[in-house]
Design goal:
The protein has 212 residues and is of the alpha/beta class. 43% of the residues lie in helices and 19% in strands. It has one domain (2-206): Rossmann fold, CATH 3.40.50.300. It has helices at residues 15-28, 43-53, 69-72, 92-100, 112-128, 149-157, 173-180, 185-188, 196-211, and strands spanning 2-6, 33-37, 60-63, 81-85, 103-108, 135-143, 164-170. Helix 1 packs across helix 2.
Length: 212
């Protein structure tokens, strides 16, 4: 069993969208998946409920909003992946979610403000490392095409000395529309030359697997 925590103390970075899409991709790959929603907004739980209403391929989901996640994960048996959607604030619950992870995936937007705010996330990771060997990496999210800010973000993120995934997720409408329908973006987009968001998500999933 591998535990993947998707989180950042900076809100609005797309952590729930990424966590839900990773859960869908792992399920499509035939894996048994548990999605833990530790955010009081319960976006991932709502996503899972919408899937159930539409009879889409299911994975398990639970809400844990107490700082016991790192203890609770050991009680969930027979899962291939546990994916944790960690709340966007530096709380005891967030720190518990980080400590539970084998891989800590940190979404970050390509702006200097977001990168400054991400420093708190990296500090939380460093404080957890003496207790557990946690692999961690950045994924740049909501990129606006044909801008130079990604190059600037890459340079700024290097100061944190954590790997940056090659996959970039762009600010595509398909990511938002698919979530509202309870679908992963690879379930939502029709197959063909315009499935840009799906290609990005599949690439991200493969990179995440290599990091585990």
């Amino acid at each position: 069993m591998k535990v993947i925590t998707v989180g950042n103390v900076k809100g609005g970075v797309g952590k729930s969208t990424i966590a839900c899409n990773l859960a869908v991709e792992a399920t499509k790959a035939g894996k048994k998946v548990l999605l833990i929603d530790s955010d009081t907004q319960q976006s991932s739980i709502d996503f899972r409920a919408t899937r159930a209403e539409k009879n889409l391929p299911e994975f398990q989901a639970v809400s844990i909003t107490k700082n016991t996640i790192h203890k609770d994960v050991g009680s969930f048996k027979d899962f291939d992946f546990i994916i944790i959607d960690a709340g966007g604030r530096d709380t005891a619950v967030f720190r518990s979610a980080v400590l539970a992870s084998d891989l800590f995936l940190i979404p970050v937007l390509p702006s200097q403000y977001d990168i400054w705010a991400t420093a708190g996330t990296v500090e939380t990771l460093e404080e957890a490392k003496p207790f557990k060997d946690i692999n961690a990496c950045f994924v740049i999210n909501q990129v606006i095409p044909h801008t130079t800010v990604v190059k600037e973000a890459l340079q700024a993120l290097k100061d944190f000395k954590l790997p940056i995934l090659n996959t970039r997720l762009h600010a595509r409408v398909a990511f938002k529309q698919s979530i509202s329908e309870g679908r992963g973006v690879t379930e939502y987009e029709p197959t063909g030359k315009n499935e840009k968001a799906s290609k990005e998500l599949r690439s991200l999933f493969q990179e995440v697997l290599k990091c585990l």
